[in-house]
Amino acid sequence: MTHPSTQIGSASGLSERDILLTLFDLGRQVASVIEFDELLQRIPELIGRLIPFDAFAVYLLDERRGDLSIAYAVGYPDASFKLQASEGIVGQDVATQQAMVLGDVSLDPHYIEVVPGMSSTIAVPLVYQAKPIGALNVLSRERDRYAERDVAILRQFAAHVATALVNARLFAQQRHDAEAFELLAEIGREVASVLDLPELLSRIGQLARRVIDYRTFGTLLLKEQTK
Question: pTM, whole model, 2 decimals?
Answer without folding.
Answer: 0.67
